[in-house]
Amino acid sequence: MIIKGINSLDISSHVEKLKNLSFEIGIYRPPSEGGSHSLLMRFTRNCPWNKCTFCEMYKEERFELRSVQEIKTDIDNVAAIRDELTALSWKMGFGGSMRREVIALLLQSDPHFHHNHCTISVFQWLYSGGKTAFLQDANSIIMRPHELIEVLVYLREKLPSLKRVTTYARAKTLAQRKSEELVEIKKAGLDRLHIGLESGDDEVLKRVNKGVSSAEQIEGGIKAIEAGFEVSEYWMPDLGGRERWRQHAENTARVLNAINPHYIRSRPLVPRPGTPLFKEFEEGKFTLSSPHERLEELKLMISRLEVNSRVCFDHAMNAWTNERGTLLFRQDYEGYKFPEEKALVLSLIEQGLRIDEKNHVDIKDLIALSSL
Predict the structure, then answer these.
(1) Do 141 and 173 meet the contact criterion of CB atoms below 8 Å apart?
(2) What pLDDT is attached to residue 1?
(3) Does a structural domain hold residue 151?
């Protein structure tokens, strides 16, 4: 690609500057933050709990709090990458807007630029509008409140295009935070919390070593909403297995009704090789439900919901099919509005139950694929 008016020296100067700019990026983020190409900013490393029997994320990794200065340096480097890309866009005649030609020219100018994940990440964020950021890793709300507030204010100052900033948060941490601390964190610029509810049943929570009670989940969720946060609660169909499906469904609905979050997101369980829960599954101590049994559990949970929430199936594990052989549920990030679309979701579940079970994806097949 040859861009009129730009010589190789102009390009090389940008390439050299961008090579020297980097920031730390973690591995995990919610699907909705990937869909919006949220800027990934690592405020903490790994998970401070890291004991859930179903989870393979962050295993063998030690939790670390990053310093305020480390985080600010990362933010400065993101801003510098943004400025370099914007300057290159102006030189290319695009008026500072992000066009594919900008990154294409950089990639073409240096064969090693494909490995510059930081620049590519910032480009994708800008190309998508530069409006959202996700703070990694698993529970950044555990940071000292005054430090989290300081870096949030700095993030918003340096990256003023941001309209939404989100992070994972643990319900127990939220329950332990003072309400006034949460209010100040919200005012500083944190908008949405992604909370792993998993189950509302205390027996199930104890068996999977979640380290939180249903009462603490309710307290943490309510405190977050009262502080002004938008709250996404994630639950795991079949986390109770065939043995405890009913209490899992009923008590999960009970807890969600008490919280009344903005979003309820379904993440059906797929035991991961190497986790304690997978070992229980292999040893016959934990029995997975069939596709129809999972739908019966989902039907019970949904029927008990009395919320003003958006109920979402925005994950590939929600793999049930309808009578046309396509996905049973929409997998967009906004989902179904409750209570208005509750009857629709229940009717879709009935569709799935009418279909021969062999036409649904069996979780055991997904486990086999993940083991390859």
Answers:
(1) yes
(2) 46
(3) no
